[in-house]
Design brief:
Elements lengths: L10 E10 L2 E10 L2 E7 L2 E8 L4 H11 L9 E7 L11 E6 L12 E3 L27 H12 L4 H5 L3 E7 L4 E7 L2 H14 L7 E5 L5 H9 L4 E4 L5 H10 L2 E4 L6 E5 L9
Parallel strand pairs: 3-6, 4-7, 10-11, 11-12
Antiparallel strand pairs: 1-2, 1-13, 3-4, 5-6, 8-9, 8-10, 12-13
C-alpha cells in the first residue's frame, strides 16, 4: 500500500487557545497541511488541486482519469513529479503528464482550481477581503459559541435523518440563529446561509459562521469576502485556513465540542475569563 509521505509533511503544529468553562490556556495542536498542486497535461495546466502533501503523482493520474481529461490509463506515457519549480516560474509542486494526443479528451484544457469540492482562489495575497478591524474589544462569549454549536447539532434536517450532508449556520453574537442550512457540500451549505443573510439585509460585522465540515481556507475566504469576522468548525482548520485567518484578521475557531473549543487566530474577540 502506498504511503502518503512522498510530498513532505502532512501535519503542521500550531499554537492555539483552548477555551474551557473554567478559563483558557495555550496549547499546541496539529492541523493538516493544505498544499496547492499544479497538474499539467502535455505542457498545459489543467488544474490546481489543494490537497495533503504525498501521493502527488497518484492524485494527478486519478484526477485526470476520473474527470475524463484523459481517455484511459494506457494513454499516459509519463508521469513526472517536481516538488519545487525554479524561482520565478511557479511556486509549489507540479505533476506533468505526457499523454498520447489521441488520449486527451479535452482539446483545450481549462485551468481549474479545486479543493476536492468547491472552487477557490489559491493565491492568498490575491484574495479580495473585507477590511476587518484589527483591535476589537472582546464581544463574543465562549458560552455563546457553545450555544451556537449546540443549536447547529440539533438542526432537524437531512443529517439527523440520513447523514451524508453538511450543515452551516450564521449566528448573532449572543447565539441567536440568523440562518441555518444543509447541503451535500459544505461550501454550498455556507453559501446558503450567507446568501440568506444578505437577502435579508443583515449586518454581518458581528456575526459568527459555523460549519459542521472542515474549515479549509476557501471556507474562511468566503466569510472574509463578506466581512464575517468569526468562523468556526466542528472539525479542525487546515494550515492555509489559519494563515488566511491571521492575514485577514479573522477569528478562527475549531474542534468545537460540548464544553470546549480551540481558537487558532483572532482570540481578541473572545471574552475569556481570567
Amino acid at each position: 500500500m502506498p504511503s502518503n509521505s512522498e510530498g513532505g509533511n502532512t501535519i503542521s503544529h500550531r499554537a492555539a487557545l483552548q477555551v474551557r468553562p473554567e478559563g483558557a490556556g495555550a496549547v499546541e495542536t496539529a492541523v493538516p497541511v493544505e498544499q496547492p498542486l499544479t497538474v499539467e497535461v502535455n505542457g498545459r495546466p489543467v488544474a490546481v488541486l489543494l490537497a495533503l502533501p504525498g501521493l502527488e503523482r497518484e492524485l494527478a493520474v486519478g484526477f485526470c482519469l476520473s474527470e475524463g481529461l484523459v481517455a484511459s490509463f494506457r494513454d499516459i506515457l509519463l508521469v513526472h513529479y517536481c516538488r519545487d519549480e525554479p524561482p520565478g516560474e511557479r511556486t509549489g509542486p507540479v505533476v506533468r503528464l505526457q499523454v498520447r494526443p489521441e488520449g486527451v479528451r479535452d482539446a483545450a484544457p481549462v485551468r481549474r482550481v479545486l479543493s476536492g469540492c468547491g472552487s477557490v482562489e489559491v493565491d492568498l495575497e490575491a484574495l479580495e477581503l473585507a477590511a476587518l478591524p484589527g483591535d476589537e474589544a472582546p464581544w463574543l462569549r465562549p458560552q455563546a459559541v457553545l450555544q451556537m454549536a449546540a443549536h447547529l447539532r440539533k438542526l432537524p434536517g437531512v443529517y439527523r435523518r440520513s447523514g451524508a450532508v453538511h450543515g452551516a449556520g450564521l449566528y448573532a453574537a449572543d447565539g441567536t440563529p440568523l440562518a441555518e442550512a444543509e447541503d451535500i457540500g459544505r461550501h454550498n451549505a455556507l453559501d446558503k446561509v450567507l446568501g440568506a443573510a444578505l437577502m435579508r439585509g443583515l449586518d454581518l460585522s458581528r456575526c459568527v459562521a459555523l460549519t459542521t465540515g472542515r474549515a479549509s481556507h476557501e471556507m474562511v475566504a468566503k466569510a472574509l469576502r463578506l466581512g464575517v469576522p468569526v468562523v468556526g468548525s466542528f472539525s479542525a482548520p487546515t494550515s492555509l485556513a489559519v494563515e488566511l485567518a491571521e492575514r485577514g484578521r479573522c477569528t478562527l475557531i475549531g474542534r468545537i465540542r460540548r464544553q470546549t473549543f480551540l481558537v487558532y487566530a483572532g482570540a481578541g474577540r473572545i471574552g475569556i475569563q481570567k
